[in-house]
Design brief:
With about 120 residues, the chain is mostly helical. It has a domain of about 70 residues. The chain is built from 3 helices and 2 strands; from the N terminus they run H-E-H-E-H. Strand 1, helix 2 and strand 2 form a beta-alpha-beta unit. Helix 1 packs across helix 3. The radius of gyration is 21 Å and the shape is globular.
Length: about 120
């Protein structure tokens, strides 16, 4: 009986270790995508900021700034899939994720935009 419990605990530990490694890769994937996008933008000297479409355009991370001033200083580009219409909870979750991505991107690219001058 003791041998079965030991084998079971080893399998359980191994399963948890492998499962946690998979979670870590999933968490890092969006960050890797962000870093790649930032690297590509820097290589191209493209310092445009993402903005959300809709009735009032918003530059994530820079809501307190005037849109026209940001547009004049660094340029702007549309964040795909960010219109006013939300049809489901999945749409809401995707919009939140897109907003967070755009905010992280904008904060880093804005510094690069200011430092190029």
């Amino acid at each position: 009986m003791k041998g079965k419990l030991t084998a079971l605990s080893v399998l359980l530990s191994a399963g948890l270790a492998v499962g946690c490694q998979g979670m870590n890769k999933q968490e890092m994937a969006p960050d890797g995508k962000l870093q790649q996008a930032l690297s590509e933008a820097m290589d191209k000297q493209d310092f445009r900021l993402y903005y959300t479409t809709g009735r009032r355009p918003v530059v994530p991370g820079f809501e307190q700034f005037e849109f026209k001033a940001l547009e004049a200083r660094c340029g702007v580009k549309v964040m795909p899939g960010t219109g006013d219409t939300l049809r489901s909870e999945a749409d809401k979750a995707a919009r939140t994720q897109a907003y967070q991505y755009a905010k992280a991107y904008n904060l880093k690219i804005y510094d690069a935009c200011l430092n190029r001058l």
